[in-house]
Amino acid sequence: MDGAREWIGTELTFDLQEASGVTVVLFAQRGWKEPVEFTHYCSTKWATYLLSLKLLCESGTGTPYPDDVNIG
After folding, report:
1. CA distance 72 to 53
2. 69/63 Cα distance (integer angstroms)
3. What are phi and psi of 30, to 5 degrees?
């Protein structure tokens, strides 16, 4: 797997659960060698991606790059 040095070797998981009639997506990126600034950036960027995916499912239009939230 190519990518940022800190990213290599991490594992992405998506688990679905039902709670009170609502589907909940539990996402994690595990296996970081150490928590560095890039770890926090990725965590925030994943949140914006998942919110865009939710919007896409609900309205038919998400906010993919370059219309995503700029956190840089």
Report:
1. 20
2. 8
3. -110, 160
Q: How far apart, in whole angstroms, are the C-alpha atoms of residue 41 and residue 70?
A: 11
Cβ contacts of residue 53 below 8 Å, gap of 6+?
62
Q: Compute the distance between CA of residue 44 and CA of residue 22 in angstroms, rounded to an integer.
A: 23
pTM to 2 decimal places: 0.80
On the CB side of 5, CA atoms within 13 Å amount to 4
Length of the chain: 72
pLDDT tens digit at each of 72 positions of the chain: 577 888 899 999 999 999 999 999 999 999 999 989 999 999 999 999 999 999 999 999 999 999 999 998
